[in-house]
Amino acid sequence: MIDLLILAAISLLLGIRLFTLLGKGNVHKIHKHKNVRTCGEADQYSNVCINEAAPKIKDVELKLEQAKNPLAKLKILDSKFNIKDFSAEIKKMYKEVLEAYAKGDTHALSKIANIEIMRKFAYPISVREENKYTCEISVDSIKGFEIDSVEISNLQAHVSVTIDAELVRYIEDAHGKVVSGNKTKVAKVRESWVLYKDFRSSTKHWQLIKTGDLFA
Fold first, then answer.
1. Does 48 reside within a domain?
2. DSSP 56
């Protein structure tokens, strides 16, 4: 009986000792890493998001001050930036915006444009829906694309561009009668857009924040 009690006491002491050792190790690890999260985990935890690949902001700002060419500044913010890809991205955006606007697809537009542009789109779309009008916009071709200006502040870029396009645009009523535009005539239009991108965020796409008269 005494032997059993002694064995039980030894087992209890060993158990307490192991728990103490393992517990300390785990607590040490938790305290050591509690504020270190990947950027993907940052949304789930109120901790610091550490992106080892991101350049130091001070170094970037210094390079921006030294760069005189606006396009060179964009290259500093995004080492992969080039005119060809940027032009292709904005031309694609132009077609997507016109298509979504014609269809009244506010969900698709909200992924491209900011709230001010959405307000600008909302009224003509609602008028068309109320009158049961159908809008058709078909981009025949984009003849020209030009970057007019680049403004950078606090690692945020505003790029003004001019787009020259040829398109067919018209609006029909519920009976198929054209109430605006022309079904067969190709119209030449010139649009001035402003694109925005915050290089401090993880977003990869530019956002439309200003359009010209096409959507007036």
1. no
2. P
